[in-house]
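Tokens in:
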């Protein structure tokens, strides 16, 4: 063996050894299989929140059957059903007519009530030809352990967002599939449409002046003033140019600061973190860009933006795995510090208890995780929501199997 052959052999051996170790840190979390029986395809959506009781509430999807709100107790690690949508609303519909999803970003009011809604699933074959009647708005009160159905905002439309202004006795609802923006008066128990159609998966924020704010289908800022009943729509600029909705995957997720004066936003397919001034009176709303939260191609973030108790902005972003360490995708937990104006990639989500669910044929839909070359179990395809709890714990939901990942930091 000549010197050249030895050098090549050593280089290849060194390269192979390097690939045995991840070129990124892990963010280890404990995984919990969301209560079996509340879903039938290991699926759920944006429905994730922390109640004022410190418990975690997750919405599950049971296609063609029903939907459920599940409570997870971080202290006991036990789960239970707190809302059965069909039972609460007095329904027996099946197939496409069923209330198959709780897809709303659960909203928790000052009272502690959890506000959410139901929507349609998917047709279960050619024989499933029934029409969807429309979704329902619901509440759950952890203090009394009682739920309430507040009726159907719009026939034929599901409910994708519910936000409460308890002080004024108003709820703001976004429907789907057509994104009607509506308001519900808790005194008169009536729904009213506000006017502009919104972007898909829109959610409402309420500023300190009591104005309800939402992003329209044209990526403009709509504002409703309950004091006057007026709705205004203003254009939005980013870097001096109109902020445009590039495609169907440009789905916004925004979170409000504790003083309700500002909001941070990322898009499903764009990791650029932008900041809104929710109190601006300018005719054109000007965004501040803080740059990309994570590098890499194929970015995807699904309702995975949250403000931590430390004032920092957290997100989960999936990117293509181009590291040479395994294949598929990597789900990064990232953070922005507004005070220091700095981004930090905290690492790739990883499961420290990989036997938490039966990954054999016991679970039909089990393709949402994969193992990296060092044997680490990590999410593969889709995360669906993320929050940072009051104690700094990060919770993320992941599909296939339907999983709640708990990262204690």
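Residues out:
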């Amino acid at each position: 063996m000549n010197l050249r052959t030895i050098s090549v052999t050593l280089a290849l051996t060194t390269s192979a050894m390097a690939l045995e170790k991840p070129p990124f840190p892990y963010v280890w979390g404990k995984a919990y299989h969301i209560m079996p029986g509340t879903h039938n395809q290991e699926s759920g959506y944006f429905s994730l929140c922390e109640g004022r009781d410190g418990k975690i509430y997750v919405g599950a999807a049971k296609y063609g059957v029903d939907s459920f709100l599940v409570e997870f107790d971080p202290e006991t690690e036990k789960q239970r059903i707190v809302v059965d949508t069909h039972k609460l609303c007095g329904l027996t519909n099946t197939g496409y007519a069923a209330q198959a999803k709780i897809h709303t970003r659960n909203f928790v009011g000052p009272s502690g009530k959890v506000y959410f809604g139901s929507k349609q699933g998917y047709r279960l074959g050619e024989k499933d030809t029934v029409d969807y009647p429309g979704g329902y708005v619901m509440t759950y009160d952890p203090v009394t352990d009682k739920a309430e159905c507040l009726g159907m905002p719009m026939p034929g439309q599901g409910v994708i967002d519910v936000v409460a202004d308890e002080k004024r006795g108003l709820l703001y609802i976004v429907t789907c599939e057509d994104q009607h923006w509506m308001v519900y008066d808790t005194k008169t128990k009536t729904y009213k449409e506000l006017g502009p159609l919104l972007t898909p998966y829109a959610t409402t924020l309420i500023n300190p002046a009591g104005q309800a704010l939402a992003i329209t289908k044209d990526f403009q800022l709509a504002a409703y003033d309950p004091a006057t009943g007026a709705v205004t729509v203003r254009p939005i600029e980013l870097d001096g140019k109109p902020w445009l909705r590039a495609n169907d995957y440009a789905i916004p997720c925004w979170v409000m600061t504790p003083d309700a004066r500002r909001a941070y936003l990322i898009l499903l397919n764009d990791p650029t973190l932008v900041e809104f001034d929710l109190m601006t009176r300018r005719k054109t709303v000007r965004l501040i860009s803080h740059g990309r939260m994570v590098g890499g191609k194929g970015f995807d973030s699904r309702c995975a933006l949250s403000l931590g108790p430390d004032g920092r902005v957290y997100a989960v972003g999936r990117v293509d795995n181009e590291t040479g360490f395994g294949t598929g995708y990597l789900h990064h937990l990232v953070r922005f510090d507004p005070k220091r104006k700095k981004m930090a990639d905290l690492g790739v989500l990883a499961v420290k208890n990989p036997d938490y669910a039966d990954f054999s044929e016991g679970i039909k839909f089990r393709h949402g995780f994969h193992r990296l070359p060092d044997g680490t179990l990590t999410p593969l395809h889709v995360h669906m929501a993320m929050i940072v709890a009051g104690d700094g714990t990060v919770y993320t939901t992941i599909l296939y199997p339907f999983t709640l990942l708990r990262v204690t930091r």
